[in-house]
Write a structure and sequence with these properties.
Elements: H1 2-21, E1 25-27, H2 30-54, H3 56-61, H4 66-81, E2 85-87, H5 90-111
Antiparallel strand pairs: 1-2
């Protein structure tokens, strides 16, 4: 449970950083940011695998770069479902996906894989 909360907080940190450095990404308050991080986790667990499979040929054709568009679409879906979190278009969504992905990657490296040695 604590790893789950840590991952939500890391995602919230990534979304906060994206809102701070990417024009066109904003949030109304900290609660909206935490809800956006939680909802992004749910969307990434349920919707993203389906979208990934449907767009797999295009992802292969673009050598994986289309995954940025898929990730931006997931952040856009969160913005659509949560009124306190907004993304102003595709380019801010892609930039937010890059920032959030980098922060999540660093956070995952800091958390480790969860296995006890």
């Amino acid at each position: 449970m604590s790893r789950f909360l840590a991952r939500v907080l890391i995602a919230a940190l990534g979304l906060w950083l994206a809102a701070s450095v990417v024009p066109g990404v904003s949030y109304a308050g900290w609660l909206d940011l935490l809800l956006a991080a939680l909802l992004l986790g749910v969307v990434n667990a349920i919707v993203r695998p389906i979208v990934f499979l449907l767009t797999l040929p295009l992802t292969i054709l673009t050598l994986g770069l289309f995954l940025l568009v898929v990730n931006a679409a997931m952040i856009g879906l969160v913005a659509l479902l949560l009124p306190g979190f907004t993304v102003a278009g595709l380019v801010p969504g892609i930039l937010a996906a890059i920032v959030t992905g980098l922060v999540s990657w660093v956070g995952q490296m800091a958390l480790g894989d969860g296995r006890s040695d």
